Amino acid sequence: MLDWHHSNLRHGTAGYIFDTVLAPAFGLTLNPQAAAEAEKVLLASLANIESVWIQKKGRLLLGSGQPSIADLSLVRELMELESILGQMKAVSGSWFLRRHSIRNFDM
Q: Which residues cross the membrane (predicted)?
């Protein structure tokens, strides 16, 4: 899971944030095509989390009843995304984030 997370969600997140938030802040030339491609990876990754990695039998990744490093890493990244891109419906509406970002991760 962590390998998938780093090569999919993180790839889309980093590219999208760089091209939509950081580049303008540093006065760099915007690349709308790169931003659109990163957004596609990000949105596909969010959909993949809910359709592949979340299994109905448990509350966490792969149906586990106990949080793993992968769960914590994923929730942390989604919470960062929500704080930076809260207006992005796919991020703020993420079922995983709504369900698993419970205060103090109470189970």
A: none
Q: State the pLDDT at residue 99.
A: 54
Q: What is the pTM of this model?
A: 0.69
Q: Which residues contact 13 (CB under 8 A, 6 or more apart)?
A: 38, 42, 45, 77, 81
Helix (H) or strand (E) holding 92: helix 89-92
Question: What residue has token string 């889309």?
Answer: 12
| CATH number of the domain to which 35 belongs | 1.20.1050.10
Residue 93 DSSP symbol: T
In the numeric block, the tokens 């969600």 are attached to: 9
Q: What is the predicted pLDDT for the residue at 106?
A: 46
Domain enclosing residue 99, as ranges: 2-105
**Total domain count for the chain?**
1
Give 10-residue mean pLDDT values along the chain (107 residues).
Answer: 75 88 91 91 82 65 72 79 68 54 45
